Amino acid sequence: MKQIVSALILSAAFLALAWGLRYAASIDMLSDETAKRAVMVLIGLGLAAYSNFTPKQIGRPGSPRAEALKQGLLRVSGWSMVLGGLAYAAIWAFAPIGIANPVAMAAVATALVVTLGYAIRTMAACRTIAAL
Amino acid sequence: MNTVFKALADPTRRKVLELLRQRPMSAGELSDHFAVSKPTMSAHFAVLREAGLIDAAKQGATITYRLKLSVLEDALLGFAQVFGIGAAPSEKTELQEGKSQ
Questions:
Q1: pLDDT tens across A75-94, in order?
Q2: Interface confidence (ipTM) of the complex
Q3: B62 at the A interface (CB within 8 A)?
Q4: Does B59 touch chain A (CB under 8 A)?
């Protein structure tokens, strides 16, 4: 319940900030490009901050081998998504606007592929353990 | 965050975290890697548990410790290992100080 509430508060803060930046752009306090970059940087930082806690979600203890596999998966997914989020934020902050979107998406997609690839590998290893 | 820095400042506790990176281990398995008394090791485990860096699960008479590091804490552990932070001070003194507080 606590996690849902904090996720909802974070989402609300993001929406409020995005709305505030849009409003600032509409009254010419910021350029459209700056407002867009700021929102995207915040999204990247939000992804990194949220993924930072992934390795802490260890759940209930299982068999020692399954625990080792689970721990490895949580660490790899946490690290890849944090780095993906930071790369997304850095690209939106510094890359030319014309290429920022595809390059930033590619960075997060790479992190997702790493996470999914490692998850598939871990699931295969778990099946092997179960079959023994 | 202060408890995390305190936990990571000690080389023995960092070594415990390094060992738990491989797999979850019982208190006995971890203690076998160190030439210190069991009460001292228990005090180290307590500091790590208090900082939220490890999780303890009791199964019968065995306590199994599992790693519970966030990515940031993992990175801090790496930095502390590379730069050898807190390598010199005596562990016993530090633990006694902690108990007296």
A1: 999 999 999 999 999 999 99
A2: 0.80
A3: no
A4: yes
Q: Which residues contact A63 (CB under 8 A, 6 or more apart)?
A: A129
Q: In whole angstroms, give the CA distance from residue A56 to residue A27.
A: 43
Across the interface, of A52, A61, A78, the residue whose CB is closest to B64 is: A61
- Residues B44 and B11 sit within 8 Å (Cβ to Cβ): no
Q: Give the confidence band of B92 by pLDDT, cuts at 50, 70, 90.
A: very low
| Pairing outcome for strands B54-59 and B25-26 | unpaired
Phi and psi dihedrals of B69, rounded to 5?
-95, 135
Residue B87: what pLDDT? Answer: 60
* Alpha-carbon gap, residue B6 to B18, rounded angstroms: 16
pLDDT band of residue B53 (cuts 50, 70, 90) is very high
Element (DSSP H or E) covering residue B59: strand B54-59
Task: Calculate helix-pair angle for A2-26, A32-52, nearest 10 degrees.
Answer: 170
Contact A71 B23 (CB under 8 A): yes
